[in-house]
UniProtKB/TrEMBL annotation:
Listed name of the protein: Uncharacterized protein
Pfam families: DUF7347, DUF7351
Domain DUF7351, residue spans: 105-282
Coiled coil: none
Ranges for domain DUF7347: 8-86
């Protein structure tokens, strides 16, 4: 059976035109306004092209890969919506390096209330202004850094989603399978001060990360339940304020062969313990006093 999928270079070339980008934008706006599809004449009017032949030529370059023709008109495909989202997020057009603001909480290293968030190289980084410790970082689209007054809340939600998908071995970028394995290495792009991190890598695309196991289980049912039993809503705590997820005092090796590591989460007079195997799977939990 022939593979009818377009060549990637041709697919990218199809959106390399101002009028086609305008078509994608107008179809996105129509969808947001509750119009699933736009008739030919209405899309042509919105784009502002008078020449029907010219308009049709550009529209047909999009049909199939980015635009779908229906009985009601034209609508974006999933690929088209992804392009529209990338444009809206400013991934291709915005530069926001240098955005800096204060972050809540204390540094797990020096315990000072000197945390700052800085946007640089398409990442938000939470670091301590006093000791220089980098607590947390993650890729984040540029446009929201200048549009939202709740930027850090949005960044934390974005990061938690990325981590939850990584823990489920699902790539947040392309939906492909991710592989995970514990490592005691400390790569350049690593988070926290812990002896072991879970290295997760997508089998298909660029996505990879080296994450403290604690960040991956902050939404684990046992962790949520444990905090709730102490009257704590863990969803309200930013990831960079979870010392037990980021600092080496709370993570230790239980056995070397097979490799088992244990995360301790203390609250008042109790402690939740989660044990991980080499693949980063939680193999047991226990609560102690």
């Amino acid at each position: 059976m022939d593979d009818a999928r377009p060549d990637p270079a041709d697919a990218l070339a199809a959106i390399g035109n101002e009028r086609r980008v305008s078509m994608i934008y107008e179809l996105q706006q129509a969808f947001r306004e509750g119009e699933y599809a736009l008739p030919y004449a209405e899309l042509k009017r919105r784009v502002g092209v008078r020449d029907s032949g010219n308009f049709n030529y550009h529209l047909q370059r999009l049909v199939g890969q980015y635009v779908r023709k229906t009985a009601d008109g034209y609508t974006l495909t999933y690929a088209g919506r992804k392009v529209a989202s990338a444009l809206t997020a400013g991934i291709f057009t915005k530069q926001a390096d240098g955005t800096t603001l204060s972050a809540s909480g204390t540094c797990y290293n020096c315990h000072e209330e000197s945390l700052v968030a800085r946007y640089e190289h398409e990442r938000v980084c939470i670091a301590c202004a006093d000791c220089g410790e980098e607590l947390l970082h993650n890729p984040f689209p540029p446009a929201p850094t200048t549009r939202r007054n709740d930027l850090l809340s949005a960044f934390d939600a974005w990061t938690r989603r990325w981590n939850a998908l990584a823990f489920a071995r699902t790539c947040s970028e392309c939906g492909s399978r991710m592989d995970g394995e514990l490592t005691d290495a400390t790569p350049t792009l690593s988070v926290g001060d812990v002896p072991y991190r879970l290295r997760v890598t997508c089998r298909e695309c660029w996505a990879m990360s080296n994450l403290p196991p604690g960040l991956l289980v902050r939404d684990h049912p046992k962790v949520v339940e444990f905090h709730a039993s102490h009257g704590v809503d863990i969803a309200s705590i930013p990831s960079w304020n979870l010392d037990w997820a980021l600092h080496h005092d709370y993570l230790g090796v239980v056995s070397d062969d097979p490799l088992r590591i244990r995360l301790r989460i203390p609250l008042e007079d109790e402690e939740l313990q989660l044990t991980f195997d080499r693949k980063g799977t939680v193999v047991s939990t226990a609560t102690t006093r």
